[in-house]
Amino acid sequence: MSIPFISAEEAATYIKNGDNVALSGFTASGTPKLVPNAIAERAKSFHDKGEPFRINLYTGASTNEFVDGALTNASAIAKRAPYQGTPATRKSVNSGEIDFYDPHLSHMSQDMRYGFIGDIDVAIVEVTEMNPSGEVILGAGLGMTPTIVKLAKKVIIEYCSCYRTSFRGFHDNYVPLDPPHRREIPIYKPSDRIGSTVLQIDPKKIIGVVPSNESESVKSFTQLNDTTRAIGRNVASFLASEMKAGRIPREFLPIQSGVGNVANAALYGLNENDDIPRFEMFTEVVQDAVTDLMENGKCSFASTCALAFSDETMLHFMDNINFYRNKLLMRPGEISNHPEIVRRLGLIAMNTALECDIYGNVNSTHVNGTYMMNGIGGSGDFCRNAYLSIFLCPSIQKGGALSAIVPMVTHVDHSDHSVKVIVTDQGVADLRNKAPMQRARTIIENCVHPDYKQLMWDYLKICGHGHMPHNLRAAFALHQTFQELGDMRLTDFSKFE
Questions:
Q1: For the segment 159-173, what is each residue's pLDDT rounded down to a tens digit?
Q2: Same structural domain, 257 and 114
Q3: 284 counts as catalytic
Q4: Residues 113 and 64 in one domain
Q5: CATH code of the domain covering residue 247
Q6: Are strands 299-304 and 279-282 parallel, antiparallel or unpaired?
Q7: Do residues 248 and 148 both lie within one domain?
Q8: What percent of the chain has pLDDT over 90?
Q9: Of 107, 166, 201, 400, whose CB neighbour count within 10 A is largest?
Q10: Which domain holds residue 262?
């Protein structure tokens, strides 16, 4: 059948107020750009007439200013899941304008198939190749795409021509069976292929194709500084020592790494440590550092959900695509993050924290327990099931006025039951086989900044007895002091004795 080319503006007319809209991609990678902007303009035109127009938006992970930024600024989002990362969206979530809920990324596709979300009215999908039968080659990120094109009543295609060469062969499209028919997912090493390199979309569902030449518009990460370098060195030294002790096999184990500057620094730390052997990755996102790891021979293969490269690194990748063709594989998020595979492969999982407490509980999402930052992402998928679950953070922020290690976290995303190792620029706290008070002493001795060590010991002195001792009047004293005086170091625990 013939599938018509249409404008983004025409495509947007098929989106109605109250629709459930799902997008391809994972982070900015593989995310449609033109149609979401056109939907934002459509929302503005409705609002100018005093008419309602808001959609429920579901994506593989965060997006970018093309999607979350534009739609939020147009007041066009009613409900959002599972992850967001633009300043405007964050503000609207925290003000209550957007109803945001935060599931694990591995759950999102199956929740859709289980019917927990309701019908998907429209799926908007970025592709880099297609034919009239609806067979497509996706772009730099998969996210939930195989599921949303199957469930959606209508599909809009954004045909992106910005890439210099084809992504053909880089995808492994696979959707697991649902209960009671579910079987094992047969991935036994990161390079195992189990799905199709192409994705079939029912052509009868496709409204039209919108031509696009927009890049992902991802900026390069901040350059390494003394703090992030120290975190990277500490991670690498710890893993090298674990291998020497026989707790990590000599052939090493696959690496999972989260998103952001600190996670990127940890990968560079592995690259620079000669005691770390060649390794593979099984992760949700591949960042700029991975290209260096591969070109230096440190990383031999990476399975991921998305190529979250800066625009500069993406151009480098495209110019050298034949080098990477047998070294990278993109999968849907429910496969890249699947607990079954994480447990089977024995991943070393490295994710970032907003704050950790002295017993090993981790807050990844909420500032002061109240204000959403981005979302839990895939960190819960990996943390609970990894061979080693490692959390990374600088020991201090805001010039030392804020400690990332606190008596009690203001929100718990990852409990002490799952967190095995905490790493800061100060050192490494190995929490395995330790009771709560042993964990507290280990974290204070190894991970807390010198400006805060005595404060943490002072807190423990006023906690009394119990399995995990706390003084509930003082547990959030550091946070309260920061709110009132702007510096946690001014906390005085003596008034709680």
A1: 999 887 889 999 999
A2: no
A3: yes
A4: yes
A5: 3.40.1080.20
A6: parallel
A7: no
A8: 91
A9: 201
A10: 226-284+337-494
**Structural domain contains residue 485:** yes
Do residues 352 and 399 share a domain?
yes
318-328 per-position pLDDT tens digit: 999 999 999 99
Q: What is the pLDDT of residues 107-157, one digit of tens each?
A: 999 999 999 999 999 999 999 999 999 999 999 999 999 999 999 999 999
The closest of 340, 304, 13, 349 to 177, measured between CA atoms, is 340
Selection from 385, 37, 329 nearest residue 167 by Cα: 329
Strands (E), 7-163: 20-23, 55-58, 77-81, 99-100, 122-130, 135-138, 154-160
Cβ atoms 391, 419 nearer than 8 A = yes
Contacts of 17 (CB under 8 A, 6+ apart): 46, 51, 52, 53, 54, 55
Global confidence as pTM: 0.95
Number of structural domains, the chain? 2
Quick: pLDDT tens for 30-79.
Answer: 999 999 999 999 999 999 999 999 999 999 999 989 899 999 999 999 99
d(CA 312, CA 481): 42
Task: Report helix angle 311-319 to 288-295, nearest 10.
Answer: 30
> In terms of residues, how long is the chain?
497
Distance CA 99, CA 79 (A): 5
Closest CA to 127 of 152, 85, 86, 155: 155
**Rounded Cα gap, residues 479 and 483, in angstroms:** 6
Domain boundary residue among 212, 245, 269?
212
Write down the pLDDT at residue 223. Answer: 76
Helix ranges (DSSP H) in 418-476: 436-447, 450-461
Catalytic residue among 126, 158, 284, 355: 284
Closest-CA residue to 385 (of 412, 421, 346): 346
Asked if 61 contacts 83 with a C-beta cutoff of 8 angstroms, the reply is yes
Q: Does any domain span residue 302?
A: no
